[in-house]
Amino acid sequence: MSKGKYYITTAIAYTSGKPHIGNTYEIILADAIARYKRAEGYDVWFQTGTDEHGQKIQEKAEAVGITPQAYVDEVAGVVKNIWDLVDSSYDSFVRTTDDDHEACVKKIFKKLYDKGDIYKGAYEGMYCTPCESFWTESQLVDGKCPDCGRDVKPAKEEAYFFKMSKYADRLIEHINTHPEFIQPVSRKNEMMNNFLLPGLQDLCVSRTSFTWGVQVDFDPKHVVYVWLDALTNYITKIGYDPDGSNEMFAKNWPADLHLIGKDIVRFHTIYWPIFLMALDLPLPKQVFGHPWLLQGGDKMSKSKGNVIYADDMVDLFGVDATRYFVLHEMPFENDGVITWDLVIERFNSDLANILGNLVNRTVSMSNKYFDGVVRSTGVTGEVDADLKAVVTGAQAKVADKMDKLRVADAISEVFTVFRRCNKYIDETMPWVLAKDEAQQDRLAEVLYNLTEAITIGASLLHSFLPSTAEKIVAQLNTELRSLDQLDQFGLYESGKKVVEKPEILFARLDAKEVLPKVEAIQAAQKAEYEAEMARLNGGAPVEAAEEAVIDIEAKEEITFDDFMKLQFQVGEIIACEAVPKSKKLLCSQVKIGSQVKQIVSGIRSSYAPEDMVGKKVMVLVNLKPAKLAGVLSEGMLLCAEDAEGNLALLTPEKNMPSGAEIA
RNA sequence: GGCGAGAUAGCUCAGUUGGCUAGAGCACACGGUUCAUACCCGUGGUGUCGAGGGUUCGAAUCCCCCUCUCGCUACCA
Questions:
Q1: Residue A406 CA to nucleotide B13 C1', Å?
Q2: How many Å apart are A357 CA and B20 C1'?
Q3: Inside any domain, residue A629
Q4: Is the C or the N end of chain A the one with fewer CB within 10 Å?
């Protein structure tokens, strides 16, 4: 019976905050695939979880005054609740703070170290002892520390590195001989051209700058840095052990599918396979970097209150409508768009009109004409053949789409069944048959065919919208069929009685009623955000909360003398042109006092060259000249940057002469 | 700058190795119908298939070039 095992994973969610619908999409997609594979007869293991280590989490926990463990416990709980809310049928939920995972990561690290694939190295660079900072040659100012101006000396900071290059050829070979390995294929080309073919750099796999992580047991001041900790969840949690794995591991590894976001394809198709090679383990069969679900129009931002969360969607539309939307709206390769209006539209047109109404009208007719009894009389009509062909052929089409991971297309195939049923009702016109005493057997057969077709459709729908499928067959007083029965028509037991009063599966929504609720959700979200910001700011209420604030990493304190080393002056831009060889650079001629300096700046995304001319700007004048994209730059224009990367040049608040000193 | 992908109906997209009047869904309009959740079914597009050139009996589909968009990547004082 079993077709063998199928091991599918999602990426583990980073516990820095509540996942929004774009993150939740992945678990729903994985769930649909997992359920479908189970229905096909595979012995499925479906794993998801949370990634809980790292500096960011340590800092967030400190900011709210709790331990990192308490912080991640809370967020992991939130993640798990949402995963459960959307009916995901995962078999295991791994947390990177689980004891067994941490113990295994330590062993893996040691094994790779003993094998020589991990070596203790260093960030080599110029070190400023008072600042405790490393600098590259190019960052130095006049050969001295750019922060404090003191002398620096060549030094290195200890870190462990993984020898990526050792396995690069094997990986290139594997990717070339396994075209299905990286999906979609466009990602494969990116990986090959940008990373593998130019040559892989060794990867830093430990850190000493923070402590919230898996400690390297033979060198306790190091913690294992993200990828060796996070990626290994795929094997640690199913029983891998460098000293001898268990049977479960032997059964499930290699994974059949790693489902991940397109942003982390690189880590899953380069570093992860190489780690596995180093551990002498087989590689996963397939990695699918799915696109993103983006919010249309405005950018998603908590401060605006327009982030869409799965639980809000479930409150308004229900679990299956939420699942339907994300599964249907997400294409295979391009990003999908989500807005509340689109959700309502999809809900009404597909779920309420096509599916819900179909079930309702069919059940209603059986009740009205035959007291709910559905029986096959064998009185067929011309139009029956096409209905049966479409319905019994759907299963193969869905299977084909699912094999290619075209989940959105697969669910569309399911809906063609329901569309065909609606058409069949119009073709046969049961209400006309009902008026003719001689046509009673034909009428019964029509309703039987509909009931049977809907049962098949519901069975196909089960992987995508599990509870809806179950509700439908309950109304029809039957059970879901297995996939291998779906090419047969006529298995519905003749003479059964459908439910008397069908429950409305999806009540049509009025945008006018839903959108005010959305506004209420957004207002609440905004208020919550402001309250949190206020809490982080020591209880002080946040003024002008409409504007997002930005926190950046604090740099070393400097002395007044340090500051006085910097020379700022007002400059007037007298000419400006784009640097031909670059996308982001502008080259400006800046008049500072009586001299003119040429300054190159990466601000083309925010300013056109012609907009620059005539502006009075603030210039760091005594910066060591350097060449950018082959063009000499003799200073720096000061700019502010927001979270989206928009830039604003700093200009004097009152008109000042060119060359005026800024202090 | 390097590599890659794309530009088809108002919107989102299909269009296999070049071939019959270029399609689907949504939206819109009209018609039909009344079993049903004012639903369902049918009909409706003059779309320069991004611009230009070429190969061919024939090109949305192949080749060249141009414009624009997007992805990854590098530089971004």
A1: 14
A2: 39
A3: yes
A4: N
